[in-house]
Amino acid sequence: MTSRNAPATKQRILDQAKRQFAQHAYAAVTVKGVADAAGVSPNLITRYFGGKDGLFLAATRVEIPVADSFGGDRSELGSRLAASIVRRWSGAPGEDPLLVLQRASGERPEAAEALAAFLDTNSFEPLRRYLRDSGLDDADAHARAAAIDAFVLGVSTRRRVLRSELGDPAELEAWLGATIQRLADG
């Protein structure tokens, strides 16, 4: 007889959901499929997450330590950001919740909203503040942060969502770093 451990069960469900949402489109993932893979009843998914939408949002919760990239001189911002970006993109293939959100954002309004909110809070706003604090006026900091944000999202969409090859990580990092730096410098 196994003992009940709600936190461990919830984590097992989340782990399976992350795997399945990363490998398949939102529509292809079922509550029953996730429950079967986690070895639980589908009712537990409803109890813990409220259903498929809640499970999706929990499975795609994203955390990125962006503060590490915003320390230091602005003249090295491009290289710091590029190193962080390439490290994330080169990580566990298909299991990055940010990538899952990007892929699902065209299919699910809540995924698009979650992605936009995440990027605003964790990328755009800290970058805008960093650029402002590095000596730019607010309007210039806003414009440059918006350009960097759009550039990185565009490259991410092209290379990851549309499943193009990332290419050589060192070359990608150098190109991203130089381009981000030009955008930061104006």
Automatic annotation (TrEMBL):
Domain HTH tetR-type, residue spans: 7-67
The record ties this protein, via InterPro entries, to: Homeodomain-like_sf, HTH-type_TetR-like_transc_reg, HTH_TetR, Tet_transcr_reg_TetR-rel_C_sf, TetR_C_16
The protein's name:
TetR/AcrR family transcriptional regulator
Q: Does the keyword DNA-binding apply?
A: yes
Q: Which UniProt keywords apply?
A: DNA-binding
One term of GO molecular function: transcription cis-regulatory region binding
Q: Species name for this entry?
A: Amycolatopsis balhimycina DSM 5908
Q: Name one Pfam family in it.
A: TetR_C_16
Cited SUPFAM superfamilies: Homeodomain-like, Tetracyclin repressor-like, C-terminal domain
DNA-binding region of this protein = 30-49
Q: Which Gene3D superfamilies match?
A: Tetracycline Repressor, domain 2 (1.10.357.10)
